[in-house]
């Protein structure tokens, strides 16, 4: 682990995490980078190669649904082919320790937290694994990648369906966000792992927790707008940072 965090800071964070009954975690694309999926804003990130306004807005979909579906279908295939990392697994272990006092909030749409075994998960930006009917709003799982040719059609009404993800300019699912806000407002320890913390309103969850008195830990190899607020910033990858926090020896 690099960076200037002191051993005392890490010990303190570990102790607080161990004792905390209410823990809220926010993850972003950085945690899935360790499963081989690209992030958005890093040098090799998706938004360096693609223009969000051409792929991730309602206008883009209205203009060229085939192109938008082709992009989401390729990300769906990549997500299905990926495996959860040790970092994903460590969050499953933390959930088992904390039980009802734990909530994992993710901006990721790849489904890797659920596949690792996390159950108390809120997916703020939707899921690559589902579609939503444009006519009746029914949500349904996509067929396995090898059997999937976009666009999917609604099993209930036969209408064409769109990816069940949140696009720029759209609101987050209200219930999911309220649940996330509640968890961060009451958290004793808040962990923010692998997000650039620039997309609202997810980015504000760390600030909310801090303002409400939580001990805030960030795990990210790069500085983010949240770093200045964090009690401890671990400048390393998600697995290394979570191993350090949870007291697991690095291999
Ligand atoms: P970003 O690509 O903005 O940020 C990824 C973060 O992960 C960066 O801060 C990296 O430094 C960090 N990172 C890279 N490798 C890491 C590793 N091994 N371990 C830990 N951290 C690492 O991705 P998000 O913050 O998730 O929204 O982006 C937020 C939202 O913007 C996404 O959900 C997506 C995007 O537009 C929508 O599509 C609606």
The biggest sheet amounts to: 6 strands, parallel
Order of helices and strands: HEHHHHHHEHEEEEHEHEEH
* Arithmetic mean of pLDDT: 95
Bound molecules: 2'-O-acetyl adenosine-5-diphosphoribose
Characterize the overall form.
elongated
Structure description:
- The protein is an alpha/beta fold and 251 residues long.
- It has a six-stranded parallel beta sheet, with helices on both faces. The protein has a three-stranded antiparallel beta sheet with strand order 5-4-6.
- It is elongated and about 55 Å long.
- The model has no long low-confidence stretch (mean pLDDT 95).
- Bound molecules: 2'-O-acetyl adenosine-5-diphosphoribose (OAD).
- 2'-O-acetyl adenosine-5-diphosphoribose (OAD) binds next to helix 2.
Brief account:
The chain is α/β, with parallel strands linked by helices.
Secondary structure: elements and pairs:
Blueprint: H1 7-19, E1 23-27, H2 29-33, H3 46-49, H4 52-55, H5 58-63, H6 65-81, H7 86-98, E2 102-106, H8 112-116, E3 121-123, E4 126-133, E5 139-141, E6 161-165, H9 174-186, E7 189-193, H10 204-211, E8 215-219, E9 232-234, H11 238-246
Parallel strand pairs: 1-2, 1-7, 2-3, 7-8, 8-9
Antiparallel strand pairs: 4-5, 4-6
Helix pairs in contact: 7-11, 9-10
Bound molecules: 2'-O-acetyl adenosine-5-diphosphoribose.
Residues 28-31, 33-34, 39-42, 45, 56, 107, 125, 166, 194-196, 199, 219-222, 224, 237-238 line the site of 2'-O-acetyl adenosine-5-diphosphoribose.
